[in-house]
# Entry
Amino acid sequence: MSVLASSSASAPAPTRLRSGGGMVRLRREGAIAPVSAFIVFLLVYVIINPELLTRFQLQTAANLVVPLALVALGQLIVVLVGGIDISIGAIMSLCNVVFATQLEAVPPPVAILLSLGVGLGCGLFNGLLVAYGGLPAIAVTLASAFIFGSLASEVLDRPGGGLTKEIYLATSGELVPFLPVSLVYLAIVAVLLWLLLQRTALGRHIYGVGSNMESVRAAGLNARLTKLIAFGLAGMVTSVGAMMLAASTVTGDPRSGDAYLLSSIAAVALAGAAFTGGRGSIIGTVLAACTLGLIGNLLFFAGINSYWQYVISALIIFTVVGLPVIWSKIAFAVKGARA
Amino acid sequence: MTVSAAPPNNPSVETPQGKLRGRASIKQAASLVPRSVWPLLAFLVLFAVGGVIRPNLITVESLIGTATFAIILAIASFGQTIAVIQAGIDLSVPNTIGFSALSFLGLVGPLGPAGAFVGALATGAVIGFFNGIVVSKLGLTPIVTTIAMNGLLFGVILLVFNFSELTAIPEFIVAITSAKVSFLGLEMAAVLPLGLALMVVLQLLLSFTGWGRSLFVVGSAAEAARLGGLPVDRIRVGGYVLSGVLAAFAGIVIVGYYQQASATMGAGYLLSSVAAVVVGGASIFGGRGSVVGTVGGALVLAQVSTLVTVLNLGANIQQLIYGVIILVVISLYGRQGRG
Amino acid sequence: MTDAQLGTAGPAQIPFQPEGERPARPEALLVATNLVKSYGPVHAVQGVSFQCNKGEVLALVGENGAGKSTVAKMLAGAVAPTSGSIAVNGEPLISGSVKKSRQSGVRCAFQELALVADWTVAENLSLPDGAPHHRFSQKKSVAAAAELLGTLDLPHIDPRATVGSLSLADRQLVEIARALAGGPELLILDEASSALTPPGVAWLFQRIRELTAEGGSVIYVSHRLGEIAEIADRGAVLRDGKVAGEFVRGGWTDDELVSLMAGREAARFFPDPPPRITDDVALSVSNLKSDGVHGIGLSIGAGEILGVGGLQGHGQAELLRALFGAAPATADSWTIAGRTISGTTPVRSVRYGVGYVPEDRKKEGLALEMSVGENLLVPWFKAYQLGGRPLLSRERGWISGILDALSVRTRGPKEAAGSLSGGNQQKLVFGRWMDRSRTVILLHDPTRGIDVRAKQELYAAIVDLAKQGVGVLWFSTEVEELVHVCHRVVVLYQGAVIDELEGERLTGDAVVGAAMGLRAAA
# Structure
């Protein structure tokens, strides 16, 4: 039909993106910068500290970053539907102590299920208030941060719990030499999440709800239910992170999640996700979490005061997130309005 | 809602949506009360409840004790109030408090108390300026920017300060905070009248100056402000500078009142400053809020804390109640935020 | 006029149809009874009843704000009616669920596009119809989308492109394609042709004819009389949320319909533009370039009303934003009141004497939580001076002057701007520039979606401004406004001025023709 074709030829879409290629999807989801940042970081790391590639250090590094990566994935799911989870640290603490204390009472698989259930419950609590109550996510999760935090202290008021060396070995040891088992768990969760987000309709709905809730509703989809599911899912992923942390530190701690609130948001920001929702990548988030989690480690081996890690993390975030903005401003100034 | 920042007896407030006739008159009557009065009323109710449970709680001393505790939280939350009004939450409040407090102590030696005071406030201004520039010029989300800033400051705190040397608290700062003064014939810590005076000054600034009103326009509808010809970026930066200065001031006050400083002294104010602002009736989306309301919100939280202590319920229950209060407050008027 | 009951049309009222194509007695597919929709104090739809028969195209016409879109959304399930009922094939339609409506065979292409910009075309086409837990394959959905686009004669749209990267016209085609997918029993097209080019409209009509030939029905919501004459079998005219009248194919003239749409008692009256007194130039710009604006030159005289016409998405909004400095722009030369500038920002524009009434009054125009008075004063806040109530009382005279001059219906300057009706909100955005010694004021379709009375009051205010010597640049989507109230009209096509119409040549047909990209032979 030539007449129509002409109408499109007159307004060609030069930025037509194909979703087929992985690179394109990465770019669309804002993950190019964090992935490149991680590659650079890893190179620097291996140059400064070739010892990373020893069995012991690989294992240490993996145990350090896996909980953060998992919690960041939980945060990412909430961010994808246009929310933010201030209570994620508290959910983590709660799941952590539930897991730790239940290990004393019930067999490990039951404890794992209980912890997952608690994470799911926390997420659904937030999700119900946000999706069906119409309340702002940031305010709801601020409130639930207090609530979940207090529950965590109720369950276990000081570090402890029934974690054992067996649990440690099962989650934080090595599967085969040079392959830390925690990385395997992270990979399983990440791949499952990726399949869910990219290969099921629900996953695409999650992206759509964050991109434009009204459009999704107008298309006849259940946007609220999608949001609720996303919050619940985020709670479960967070719970996995909490259990990995409990296992690798061999202790349950009611304050263990506190540090992860800000760092999970930082990792999601570094991953290039849009805090308005609808954009963000799993691989980007995992690698961003690895970068942020390993900076302290790197500085230690480079013989630099490891307190610098806080400063460097902040600078990396400002740079990676801010560079594209500066770049586009410069590009506009150079090119002018010749678009 | 209009001018929630207006002082009491503002008669102009009206809900935007017409409700059913029967409820209209009640709504109308309720809406005649400015929003900042509600938290104060809630505080009085809680105070009365405390009296019912323990009649010996209804004393002026008890009131002053709670109010003193509240005013410190309120001072720490004033900066947060300014940030929230302009639709930019400030999660760098905790380490701004710590950094400025430690800077103050560090500068007392070389500059003397007054010089150190000014110097510490200046550090807050610089921090706020940087936050503002990144948010308004680079377009980073306020949450991400201030989280990164918070992390950066933590690193700087650990790197720069030698904590063992920073123990001497100058007399001058004790005199304006923890020293007992007689005010209106009552004995109280100096920080109480100081905080109330600051509240009045800030409320006047917000309600009755062009800059203050511009801040509300920017928070309520940034694009409308820009297209109305307001210098949005400058107003934003100004808001963050003020927020930083106020957090710095809070740091000095906290040092003076508790007579100790540490790297993590501000950590407790991350969520509680936002909580006080939200309970004080501000909209987390910006455009609505008042420092009077924040003082009211802090009073409510402080009274809960007093009751919990008196009834010996434990800190966990206190956190739980905080969470529930926030949920109640946001479900009362959180939804009207965006039309 | 009481609510006219439609749909009882006997066979005598269906002329112009070839015999045999239509059952002798029309069979009702959809019956809407006494639909009411209120948003708080605003009654968008007040008791609308009509019927759509199988195999026919029913037009819903009316001016902006007459309630057409609200009716369409109620039928589609996007909006739940306050009261009233809708039945499809005799079964009551469960209201307020797009999904249920779709399952009943009712599908809608929405005016505000209901596509997710970050999804690909294929995702937008296929996702709404799958269960959420089902496996989703990019490859399969792309193949299905390519097939659908192929059968619908839209091969030029790439199913793998994200919708956000498409042109507005293509997005509208995708929206229509999604509604057509699965062969709906009832297709609702809500201003679906607003961004389409003439070939696009022809494509749409072809699809409509195919659908009705198979027994499907179409409700065609529009205010473009030409299209309605071509495609509609019957129609209902909405005015102020009520059915003002009905018509059948061939049984009406443009004038009759326009007077029905406008209402006899409130017959549209366009004031003439005031006579020009000076030849001073208020604003001139040449080779203005910005995103979506490709080298526009124009000059506005003091006291002149210069209209801007064109189809949606051809650079009108971008032109206004560029001139105000809201979007970065460059120009070879640029003067405001004789002062040469190299570029501008909103802050500087206000200082230079430019005022701007933006497109979306709720998001770009007003701080809805703040008071009427403060919203009027927004451009005039001075950081180091008084604000709030002291400023309101100092400016009391000016504020009440503006509120009176524009007849803003409000309980006073302290009422929240958000509680005003749309028309009154628009007056606030406009009023803030009055009596403030402006050189030029840029209007982005200020009369869109407001009632007739508010329109008249705005026309009068615009003409008054011109009388005072203010240059007015007025982008309007209503051709009538351009033709009657403007001295001169520039028509934009693909980001450039395609034609400039004045005097004799300034007719509705000329404006529409130029907007379609056809330059009238001079």
Observations:
- The two ends of chain B are 11 Å apart (CA to CA).
